[in-house]
From TrEMBL:
Residues 1-31 are annotated as: Disordered. Residues 23-89 form the STAS domain. The lineage of its organism: Bacteria, Bacillati, Actinomycetota, Actinomycetes, Streptosporangiales. It comes from the Bacteria. It comes from Nonomuraea composti. This is STAS domain-containing protein. InterPro entries: STAS_dom, STAS_dom_sf.
Amino acid sequence: MPPRSGDPEAAIGRTRPPGRPPVLDLGGLTDMDGTGPHVLLRVHGDLRRQGGSLHLAAVRDLPARLPRTTEVWDALDTHPSAQAAITALLRPAAPSPHPRRLS
């Protein structure tokens, strides 16, 4: 995502590979204001409605502080690095412990 984008949600949409969940490497991000968690939740919600998910990688302590204190962090898929996020996305999904009954 380009730094200081006027519309981060649109920037994520433009750079997202079709049919693949985006991985946002935030390792270079040094701060996050109050709009950051809201943007992340909106993008995450949009992707969930489309059957996808948003993955954040390498979020440093200071930018992560606000999402953690507002409990936004718990709703997001976070990884220690971009490579860890990609590895997690390539793993086959584990079977559900609660199989659904077909009626």
